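Think of the structure tokens as a kind of shorthand, similar to the way a musician reads notation: each symbol stands for something richer, in this case the local conformation of the backbone. In the example below we present two proteins back to back. Begin with the first one, reading the sequence and then the tokens, and try to describe in your own words what changes along the chain.
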Amino acid sequence: MYYDPIKKSLGDVFNRTPWLRRLFYQLLDLLLLRTWHVHRELRAWSKGRAQEALSILDAGSGYGQYTYWLSGQSPKWEILAVDVKEEQVADSNQFFRQIGRTNAQFAVQDLVLYQQPNAFDLALSVDVMEHILEDVEVFRNIHASLKDGGMLLISTPSDQGGSDVHSDGETSFIEEHVRDGYNIHEIQQKLRTAGFERIEAQYSYGEPGQISWRLSMKYPILLLGYSKLFFLLLPFYYLLTFPFCLLLNWFDANTRHKSGTGLIVKAWK
């Protein structure tokens, strides 16, 4: 299934007013399990640093929900959010101007080519690397763009069922993916090749998270891919499933997993 047309349809609905876009971000924060894991790591990274003047790169910003969250943590943090999709970048810049968030800027950039040496204290890459074939080049560019001691935080599918692939004969649930998921040792080796020395990787989306993902993401996306009329049924669907998804997300984000369909990786320069 091609996910981008569905994402564009959602964007068209929630971009109509700043209030709707804020609501959209709040819903994503609650429904998307990866957000629970990413926010946990960002809180740990930012503890005691709200008064520091920090520079942050959102590498593959998408809807801009992580830039929105980060820009609200401290007015002293400057966030550059880059993406290859011009329409999303333009929409995000307009929205951030409307709400007066002057510490965030969106720009069109290709991560395979983009490099800004020694510029950032933190780089964030959430569900991006599974879309990019030249991943080592991206890791090298981000490594060069980080200051000494800077950290890269990655969320990406693993090879333990990520992209809903569980055997050699299956293909990715999301057809825009160029890889189904990373082996945990493979991604660490690629980061070392790019110049990172200290690397920590752990699984996300254990059993609770996988159930939540199917209920909150897979089944609704399949329905929307079949017909946009299912937009009308989504509020009733989530009214039934939302409480269970929240509970499952909490368990997944607060549990260490021996295996999982996602990876959370931290690497320091």
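Once you have a description of the first chain, move to the second and do the same.
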Amino acid sequence: MLPGRGRNGHAARLSRILGTRTAWTAAGDGEFFCPGCGGDRNYQRLTGQRRFTLLGLPVLPRGETGPVVECAACRRHFGTDVLDHPTTTRFSAMLRDAVHTVALAVLAAGGAGARTALEAAVLAVRAAGFDDCTEEQLAALVEALEADTGRIAGEPCGAGLAIELHEALDPLTPHLAAVGRESILLQGARIALADGPYTTAERDVLATVGAALTICSDDVTRLLAAARTPS
């Protein structure tokens, strides 16, 4: 059989005559974490109109396609669910706020009056990104938190404080691996242990933190016990 003959040759010739083309229209833009580039990039949200082509020229509409997200750097297209993932900058801010909120919650459980607990909290919060955090600032924020939630130091975790924790942790949790979620809980545990054994109120707060981080109760118990063992 001569080259170009048969089914493959016929299909190749047909594809040069008839085909489809998508005309993209920008419908929005912003910044996202590009899975292709592996970093924060600008994007355009595109909607598409497909058309049949004859000899490379569009002739008949074939329907809409998309929307898709196009990276401004690599030009690759992704589904719009890629926008559900936070940018690196946003993720860092969410993690910083989560650690800060957990530290305040643990201190509000009774450790705000102990310098060792405040020192441990400051170290954790600074490591998370609040470089200028001080013991005085945390103590003042604990007082404000107690006034806002109507909670008295040493009481179990009430509804107001639980809401504060869930608001800080719920958006972050789906984007953290198990080791990352456990790390946040352990930081809270070390703050609680800085001034002595866990109190009932501290355990209650840490259990709420674990639940918000979707850590099962058995693993919360294991981690709280592990935090008591010197490394």
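Compare your description with these statements about the second chain. The chain has a mean pLDDT of 85.
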